[in-house]
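Re: that chain you flagged

S.,

Sorry for the slow reply, it's been a week of failed gels. I finally had a moment to sit down with the sequence you sent. For the record, here it is as I used it:
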Amino acid sequence: MPQAIIIGASSGIGEALARRLAKQGWRLGLAARRLALLEKLCRELGEDHTALELDVAKSDEAISAMAGFLDDPGGVDLIILCAGTGHLNEEAAWEPDQETIAVNVMGFAAMAQLALRHFLQRGSGHLVGVTSVAALRSSGAGAAYSASKAFGSMYLDGLRALAKSGKLPITVTEVIPGFVDTAMMQADKPFWVASPDKAAAQILSAIERKANRVYITRRWAIIGTLLKLLPR
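Prediction finished late last night. Pasting the structure tokens below so you have them in one place:
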């Protein structure tokens, strides 16, 4: 039975991915801050799945906790990083930006590096990291969020190059969502916002193809290209 770990599985895209992977026969390790939600999800999905309380903002503690979670005789085949946060910080206060950096930069890097190290030792595996189209163009109130997602995108590029240099069957996939209907989405929702389940379906398709990166939904590939071409 293939095994996967989803970090940030208590809601949104992470939860939707957990439900779809469970239906496909994966054994899951689900990690997030809200343990009660994870345990409820595990009960719904079946007996083979486990939950771990994990706060990636406390990166050193998260590394220790995840190291134990990864200690499985069969090894973990797939690790998905969905945990993230963001704030509209119009007052330029430090606390919201500090939290964003702790989760989306320090926490993301700690978990991604740990995942790649596991796959390098195992000799194979698939790392998936969720960034955002916000990485392509910053905004005043969302400066820290955009910058943190740009960091995540570049960090995944580097880990992909590192895995490639080892000539091992290790895939690193960057998921680049646009508007997905999650709790973190604070803006008015356009009519074409994607549901978490639709996003999860397209992400799993990208995982099966071993894609380097995928826009969610596909229309954002066009928008992303325009954002890169337009002057700032």
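What I noticed first: The chain has a mean pLDDT of 91.

Talk soon,
D.
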